[in-house]
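Narrative of activities, Objective 1.

The group set out to show that a structural description can be obtained from nothing but a protein's sequence at a throughput compatible with the screening campaign. Below is one input-output pair from the validation batch, recorded exactly as produced.
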Amino acid sequence: MLSVITPVYNGADFVKRCYANLVEQTFTNWEWVVVDDGSTDDTAETVRKISDSRVRLFSYQPNRGRGYARNLALAQSRGDWIAVWDIDDLNFPERLEKVADARSRGYDYCCSYAVVVNNDLDIKGTRGFHRASGCIPREFVHPTLAVKKDIARKIGYKITRGKGGPAEDARMIWSLSLKYKGLWFDDALTIYQEDRDLHLQKAVDTNKAHLQTLKEIQSEMLIRPDAKYYCTILKYSLKIVLLNALRVSPRIYPRLVGFRDYGETQRGWRLSAEKIKFIEKQKTISS
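Output recorded for this entry:
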C-alpha cells in the first residue's frame, strides 16, 4: 500500500477535487492520510463526508504549520512508501503507478517534472530539475516526491518560522538528493498550482528558512564548509535583503516571479497532447 499524505489548512474548496483526482489513479492500493492543520473553514467536515475506508482524517487546533502537519502524516501512515499530494495540486492518473514501479525497482525515492498552472488551471510552464549549484545539490519540486516512509521519518520535516511554516521541505529535498538513490522521472506526473499562496512575506520567510536549513545540514556534515558553501550563504543573505527592500512597493514582487528559473527538462521533451487534454478536462470539472 502507498500512503498519500495531504496536510491542509483552510482547503475545504479543494477537498472534493483532490479526492476525485486521487480515485482516477490507475494504481488503487492506497490510503489517503489527510491532516487538517487547524483549519477555520469546513475542511474536516468535508473530508468526513467522503465515504471511502481508505480516507483517514487527523484534525487538531490550532494551526501549527506544514512541517508539523507533514510529520504527523508520516507518523500515522501505514504504507511502506508515502506520496506527497498537496490539496490544491493535481496529478496525472499514472503517477502512483510510476511510484509503485520505482519501489519495485529498489529506489529510495522518486520525483518528476511538474506542470505549473495558475488558479484557472492555465498552463504557465513546466518545472523540471535544477542542477547542482554552489553547495546546493540537484533539486526537484517537492509536490512530486514519493519516498520510503522510514527514510522520510528519519529525515523529517523542519518546523520553520513564518505564516504556514514555509520551506519545511528543504531538508527533505536536499538530504534525499545528497544521500539516497532516487528515480528522477523525465516526464510530468504532477500539476502544480503555483499562484494560490504567492506573496512577498512568504518569499522572505522561505529564504530565511532555506538559509537556516543550509547551516544545519552543514553542521551535520552533509555538505562541506568550503568556498561554495559560503558563497551560497552570501547569495541567500543578499536575496533576503533585496526581498525586504521590495516592501517599499510589494506589487512588484508578483511580476518578478514570472522570471523564476523553472529548471531543466530533457532535451526535446514536450508535454503530451493527452496530458494537455487531461488538464483541460480538470478545468471543466472545476468550473
